[in-house]
Each structure stands twice: as structure tokens, then as C-alpha cells.
């Protein structure tokens, strides 16, 4: 299969699902392949594992090619690239992966799909890190040389997807660990200019993901046009494609279209998630049609949008493990994935896109079911009065989803006090939640009509019932009777879905008094949180500079001050304060 032209449309989908079949770890990191799993297997077990991966990948590729995707993304370059600095055991493992992945590439190409590999900048082993050091120039030279050798060795790979904003935590024990080394727009610009000639020489695409995790001066690259302009200044390479999330934050509802789509004329693709990591990971229907239909329409005015990159499996740290296009239970993700492609590739509206779904028993009932699922998620999983407000803290757009995170439901005094400042009519929010629950009951009837898993709607009803009850706790007087109702509902939920049946949400209650008073919360939102993207003077002085210094001090003292488990839970703060 010849490499595609550098200006051809891209309709990419992640193909990581086959690598997780039989992975027994409780909470899985779905952001990249489980390399640590392969590292721990004996040689014979590893070969057997890849036998199954090949079988599943063939099924997956055939399915996504049949509905119109033209490329897949896999991880990653460092595990497949030779280098003379690699430790001997690591080099041997790389040789094994090279042989196995070459066969996987062949399978994808046999189904008419291009192959793209992701990589973090920079991913190193201890030996590589020691040899290269912290010199920016040496790091750029290493990366350019690595890519050049990789492209020469793998002519079947159409390009590389670069990620610059993530680094592995201290708990990652894998041979290769990613390091966050590009800390300013100027550094990213220099890096792109150093490696793009390699992509041009070999006729490959460099897909640069413009999102980060709040890190350093490029933490606002996902949404701030000035940072994007500095990052791509003076770059006109035909090999470069920008990959942007549709909103200013992660994959949430209530986000307006990312303005950076209109800032540059460079080719760009829009990233979309169909296995919604914050909305149940496909355990229940969370239809994206209405949301994505609006985004697709608005993007028609954006310059040089050449396609999409769909995450049908990637994203989140959760125990939920339905595998799209491999497990029959992943039907909700597969519907989202099908409809999303029709919206963006064919310019259809939701009704027409759904009408093309194969094997549908009752299209009218299905459309009603999907619409209701979207309404329930918008009205109950999210809290509309809070979600409609835009908040920025330092370089981060604060997500519009509060109290539910991946597979956790949090009910706490701290959330109660915060919502008291941010939601004007709590009783209206409670009534809206009860109305959404009534829609779920209608969805169960529709699922039976459509021949779709009614038990998933029942699971949604039990789960969302906890969230609806939490609203009463948040917005009504605090009393012991309310807490008893919450505890009883939690016990019923656990009895309905005991361990060994299906993975369920973890419900965390914290009824202890919150130390910060209402006045302190108001001051926090007035001086440290803003409602517009532009930085205020106080943000530049207090938010960006002073808090960075505070973080630096806390980080140095943290190993002495807090136990190991607390250090792990604090790692998520790194992205906000760096």
C-alpha cells in the first residue's frame, strides 16, 4: 500500500482495543498501550498474547474500514526504534516488538487503512536519559535521528502523532518513561523546525497534538491563540497537521468550539471521543450526536480542516473495559463512532446519520432513545447551572463536570459549599434531575423495542439515581435523614452490582465539615478564577508566578511531609501548578 498524499483527508481512529483483551488489572490506564503488561510476560506468553492481538486487530480494522475510516493510530515509536544507547534487555524487547508490529501494520494495510504511530516528547529509558542529558539541542538531535531511522525501517508507517504535554508519574515502572521537556512555545517551535525536514524527506505526516495538561508556558496551547501563534510561527511545512480537541478542555459537554481552529490556516484535524471517559465509558448510552452535529456545522467555516481523529477506546483511568468493535457489549460506543464519522465526513445531520446504521429494528425508537440519553447526560450527569459557566484557573479551563470523575461519584461538603456560591436555584436543579430520571424509564422501554441491552439502561438508572439524590443533599438543608438516604442508596447500588457481576461506579461520601467558609470560597473565585480566557493582571502575578513558586516549595518538601499514598494522589496537581 503506497503512502497517502500529504494533503489527503484523514479519518483516523485509535486501534488500541485489541491490546487490552484479557488484561486483568482493575483500573486501567487507557491513554496508551499497556507496555508494562508485555514487559512482565514470559516469552511464550508474550507470543501467545500477540497471536490474539493479531486476530482482534484484523476484526477491528475490517469493521472500522467498512464504515469509512481510512487510518488507525497505535502506540508508539520509542518501543519500535533501535538505538545503540538502549540497555541490552530493552533492545532485545524492542526487536521482538518490531517483528510483531510489522505484522500488525500489514493487517491494517490489508484492510485499506493507513497506519500512524503516537509518541510522547520525550520518551526515554534510564540509559538514554543519562546519555542525552538535559540539553535541549541534544534532545532535538536525538529525536530527529530517532525518527529518521524509524521512517527508514518502517516505510509502511504513514506518519507520527506527537504529544508534548504529558509525563509519566512516579508510579510508572515501565522501561520507557515519558518526560515533559518542551516547556515554552519557543521550545516547541524549535523542536518542530528540527524534525519537520525529516518528515518531509520521507513523505510522512507529522500530526502535532496541540493539547497539554496545564504544563509550564504551553499549558494553555489548547485554547489560547497567542500561544498557538508563537508555537507555529514561521512554519509552513507541507508535512505538518495540527490535531486539536474540539473544546478548550478535555472531552466534556457544554464546551464552545475551540477558537484556535480559526487562528491558523495550517491543516488541522479535530479530535473527538466516542467512548466517553467521563460519561460511563460505554457502560450505558451517552449519545454524542447532538453535540457533534453542532461542532461539525460550526467547523465548516474554519480554514483547512482536513478530517477527524476519533478516540473509540482511548482515555481515562477506569475499570470499565468494553472493547469497541470487538465486544457485543460495546454497542453504545460503536453507535457513537459510526454517527460521528457520518457527521464529519459526509456532512449529514443526526437523523440521516442514524438512518444509515445497519441492522436497526426500529429507527424511530432508536433515534428517540439516543436523543433521550443525550438529554439525561446533559441534565443530570452534568449540573447545567454550573456547566454553563466558564471558569479558568491559571492556564487551565476548569471542566464543566463536577462531582463525577471517571468511575467515581463524589458527594462532599466541599462540593456542597462551592455549589452554594455558583448555583442560584437549587430546587430547580433537583426538579431537573428527577425529570431526567423519568426519561431513563422511557429509555428502558425503547431499548426493548430496538433489541438493545435494556440492562445497560437499568444500570444507568441505578447510577444516575445516586446522582439525583446527591442533588438533594447539595441544595437542601443538611440533616441526618438525608445522609441516611444517601448511605442506603449506596448499599442498594452495591448489592445490585456486587463484585464479579459488572464494574460499577465507586461512590465516595465525605460529610465532614469543610474548613473553608463561604467568604473564602467567594474570594477564591473572585481573585484566582476568571470567567474569560484572557489573563488579568492578578492572574499573571498571583496565579502564574506566585503559585508556581508555592508548588515548587511543596514539591521539594512533599516526600518528607506526606506518606507515599498521599504523594500519589497529589500527582494530578502537578499539571495545574507547573
Which properties best describe this structure?
578 residues, TIM Barrel, 3 domains, 20 helices, disordered C terminus
Verbal overview:
This protein is of the alpha/beta class and 578 residues long. It folds into three domains: 10-355, Glycosidases (TIM Barrel), CATH 3.20.20; 367-510, no CATH class; 535-577. 48% of the residues lie in helices and 12% in strands. The protein has 20 helices and 18 strands. Strand 15 and strand 16 form a beta hairpin. The longest helix is centred in the N-terminal third of the chain and has 25 residues, at 43-67. The protein is globular, with a radius of gyration of 24 Å.
Explain the layout of strands and helices.
Blueprint: E1 10-14, E2 28-29, H1 35-40, H2 43-67, E3 71-75, H3 88-110, E4 114-120, E5 123-124, H4 126-132, H5 136-153, E6 159-163, E7 177-178, H6 185-202, E8 205-209, H7 225-231, E9 240-245, E10 268-273, H8 289-298, E11 305-311, E12 317-318, H9 331-345, H10 350-355, H11 363-381, H12 384-387, E13 392-393, E14 396-397, E15 404-405, E16 408-412, H13 413-422, H14 426-450, H15 454-475, H16 480-496, E17 506-510, H17 518-527, E18 529-530, H18 537-561, H19 564-570, H20 574-577
Parallel strand pairs: 1-3, 1-11, 3-4, 4-6, 6-8, 8-9, 9-10, 10-11, 16-17
Antiparallel strand pairs: 2-12, 5-7, 13-14, 13-18, 15-16
Helix pairs in contact: 2-3, 5-6, 6-7, 8-9, 11-14, 14-15, 15-16
In short:
The chain is of the alpha/beta class and 578 residues long. It is 48% helix and 12% strand. The strands form 5 sheets. Strands 1-3-4-6-8-9-10-11 form an 8-stranded parallel beta barrel, surrounded by 4 helices.
Amino acid at each position: 500500500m503506497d503512502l497517502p498524499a500529504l494533503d489527503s483527508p484523514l479519518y483516523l481512529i485509535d486501534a488500541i482495543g485489541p491490546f487490552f483483551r484479557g488484561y486483568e488489572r482493575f483500573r486501567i490506564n487507557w491513554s496508551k498501550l499497556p507496555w508494562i503488561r508485555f514487559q512482565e510476560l514470559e516469552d511464550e506468553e508474550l507470543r501467545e498474547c500477540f497471536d490474539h492481538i493479531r486476530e482482534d486487530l484484523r476484526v477491528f480494522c475490517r469493521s472500522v474500514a467498512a464504515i469509512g475510516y481510512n487510518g488507525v493510530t497505535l502506540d508508539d515509536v520509542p518501543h519500535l526504534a533501535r538505538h545503540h544507547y538502549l540497555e541490552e534487555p530493552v533492545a532485545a524487547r524492542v526487536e521482538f516488538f518490531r517483528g510483531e508490529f510489522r505484522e500488525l501494520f500489514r493487517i491494517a494495510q490489508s484492510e485499506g487503512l493507513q497506519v500512524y504511530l503516537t509518541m510522547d516528547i520525550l520518551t526515554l529509558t534510564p540509559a538514554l536519559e543519562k546519555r542525552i542529558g538535559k540539553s535541549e539541542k541534544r534532545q532535538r538531535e536525538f529525536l530527529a535521528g530517532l525518527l529518521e531511522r524509524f521512517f527508514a525501517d518502517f516505510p509502511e508507517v504513514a506518519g507520527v502523532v506527537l504529544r508534548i504535554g504529558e509525563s509519566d508519574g512516579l508510579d510508572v515502572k515501565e522501561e520507557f518513561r515519558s518526560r515533559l521537556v518542551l516547556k515554552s512555545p519557543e521550545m516547541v517551535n524549535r523542536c518542530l523546525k528540527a524534525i519537520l525536514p525529516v518528515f518531509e524527506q520521507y513523505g510522512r505526516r507529522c500530526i502535532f497534538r496541540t493539547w497539554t495538561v496545564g504544563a509550564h508556558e504551553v499549558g494553555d496551547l489548547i485554547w489560547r491563540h497567542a500561544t498557538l501563534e508563537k508555537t507555529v510561527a514561521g512554519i509552513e511545512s507541507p508535512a505538518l497537521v495540527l490535531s486539536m480537541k474540539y473544546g478548550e478542555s478535555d472531552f466534556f459537554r457544554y464546551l464552545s468550539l475551540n477558537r484556535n481552529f480559526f487562528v491558523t490556516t495550517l491543516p488541522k484535524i479535530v479530535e473527538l471521543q466516542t467512548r466517553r471517559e467521563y460519561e460511563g465509558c460505554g457502560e450505558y448510552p451517552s449519545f454524542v450526536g447532538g453535540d457533534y452535529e453542532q461542532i461539525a456545522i460550526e467547523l465548516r467555516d474554519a480554514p483547512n480542516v482536513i478530517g477527524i481523529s476519533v478516540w473509540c477506546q482511548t482515555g481515562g483511568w477506569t475499570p470499565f473495559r468494553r472493547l469497541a468493535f470487538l465486544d457485543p457489549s460495546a454497542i453504545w460506543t460503536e453507535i457513537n463512532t459510526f454517527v460521528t464519522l457520518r457527521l464529519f465526513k459526509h456532512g449529514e445531520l443526526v437523523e440521516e446519520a442514524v438512518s444509515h446504521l445497519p441492522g436497526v429494528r426500529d429507527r424511530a425508537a432508536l433515534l428517540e432513545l439516543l436523543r433521550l440519553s443525550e438529554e439525561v447526560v446533559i441534565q443530570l450527569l452534568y449540573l447545567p447551572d454550573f456547566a454553563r459557566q466558564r471558569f479558568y484557573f491559571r492556564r487551565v479551563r476548569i471542566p464543566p463536570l463536577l462531582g463525577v470523575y471517571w468511575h467515581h461519584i463524589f458527594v462532599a461538603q466541599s462540593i456542597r459549599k462551592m455549589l452554594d456560591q455558583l448555583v442560584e436555584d437549587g430546587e430547580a436543579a433537583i426538579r431537573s434531575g428527577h425529570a431526567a430520571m423519568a426519561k431513563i424509564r422511557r429509555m428502558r422501554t425503547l431499548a426493548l423495542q430496538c433489541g438493545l441491552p435494556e440492562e445497560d439502561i437499568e444500570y444507568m438508572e441505578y447510577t444516575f439515581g445516586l446522582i439525583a439524590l446527591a442533588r438533594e443533599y447539595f441544595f437542601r438543608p443538611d440533616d441526618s435523614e438525608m445522609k441516611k438516604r444517601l448511605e442506603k442508596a449506596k448499599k442498594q447500588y452495591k448489592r445490585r452490582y456486587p463484585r464479579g457481576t459488572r464494574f460499577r461506579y465507586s461512590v465516595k461520601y465525605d460529610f465532614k465539615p469543610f474548613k473553608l467558609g463561604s467568604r473564602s470560597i467567594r474570594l477564591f473565585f473572585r481573585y484566582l478564577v476568571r470567567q474569560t480566557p484572557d489573563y488579568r493582571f492578578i492572574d499573571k502575578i498571583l496565579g502564574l508566578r506566585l503559585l508556581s513558586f508555592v508548588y515548587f516549595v511543596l514539591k521539594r518538601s512533599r516526600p518528607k511531609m506526606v506518606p507515599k499514598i498521599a504523594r500519589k494522589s497529589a500527582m494530578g496537581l502537578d499539571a495545574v501548578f507547573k
